[in-house]
Amino acid sequence: MSTSDPERPGFVLPLLLLAGFRSLIDDLHTELARQGHPDLRPAHGFVLQAVGVDGTTASELGHRLGVSKQAAGKTVDRLVALGYLERADDPADARRKLVRMTEKGVDGLRRSAVLFDALRERWVTRLGADRVAALEDDLRAVTPPDSFRLDVPGWFGT
């Protein structure tokens, strides 16, 4: 006996979750472009987060993102060309190169954080604070505690 609601087939839930995510990300990038970051793409946010404040190597970056060292290197090359990342000598090991965020990269992440707060407030205005909080609580209840991972680019096969 199936308990599924024919009006709400199971495949719709992940599509709605993805659509909500896409809506937030599209709105974020529209505003980031308006604020001086027209070249930032959704995958770049994962890369900047994975590089972090201390920087990292291309190999470690690939591991964090769930992609090959070569794929990470290609993305780093693009973000270096755009001015968001730089390569620098590792002070702990002269044989290694670190990938670090530039001020432009830090600015993009800072603006993203502020914009995500504003986008959440839009949802609060539309749905109500209690419903948004309940949605967040419900998603926390059905996802593992370590569900925030930066390997989404690798998971999507990019």
TrEMBL record:
Pfam families: MarR_2. One of its GO terms (biological process) is response to stress. Keywords: DNA-binding. Residues 1-144 form the HTH marR-type domain. GO terms for molecular function: DNA binding; DNA-binding transcription factor activity. This is DNA-binding transcriptional regulator, MarR family. It comes from Micromonospora matsumotoense. The lineage of its organism: Bacteria, Bacillati, Actinomycetota, Actinomycetes, Micromonosporales.
